[in-house]
Amino acid sequence: MAHSPMQVDALIVDATDPELLAAFWSELLGRPVVARMGPYVWLRRENGLGLGFQRTGEPKSAKNRMHFDITSPDPAAQQQRVEVLGRRRLEEYTDGGFLVMADPESNEFCIIPEGPFELDDEGRADYLG
């Protein structure tokens, strides 16, 4: 019997306040909130991928094991936009050359250029100049 490959249907982010987190990501990605079901808040599905936020009882306590890379033609301009939304850059990652930001519940995410960029042998990026 042949097995068809599985595909990622949705990414779910644990949140102590799923409404707050969904509102931030909705504004950042331009994907409106489209559903609320039980402990979940869902953004509009795009390119076949769902993005949801699930209420949990405990706050984030360590570095994410997975994070989002958000692309932009101008990462520096997007950094300012994220900061206007009340979030911050995580300076402890500056030496790596990536623009690492934190969402309202301190989940890390990177803003990277849309096009290719170089990494050195240590995995440091060069797109911030």
Describe the structure.
With about 130 residues, this protein is an alpha/beta fold. Helix content is about 15%, strand content about 35%. The strands form two sheets. The protein has a four-stranded mixed sheet, covered by helices on one side. A four-stranded mixed sheet has the order 5-8-7-6, with helices on one face. It starts with 9 loop residues before the first strand and ends in a 16-residue tail after the last strand. The model has no long low-confidence stretch (mean pLDDT about 95).
Radius of gyration: 16 Å
How many β-strands, per DSSP?
Answer: 8
Average pLDDT over all residues:
93
The number of domains is: 2
Helix/strand order, N-terminal first:
EHEEEEHEEE
**Spatial arrangement of strands, main beta sheet:** 1-4-3-2
In the CATH hierarchy, the third-tier topology of the largest domain is known as: 2,3-Dihydroxybiphenyl 1,2-Dioxygenase, domain 1
Residue share in helices? Answer: 10-25%
Mass-distribution shape? globular
Main sheet, how many strands, which sense, barrel? 4 strands, mixed
Put simply, the count of helices is 2
Provide the structure class.
Answer: alpha/beta
Give the CATH architecture of the largest domain: Roll
CATH class division of the largest domain: Alpha Beta
From the N-terminal CA to the C-terminal CA, the straight-line distance is: 52 Å
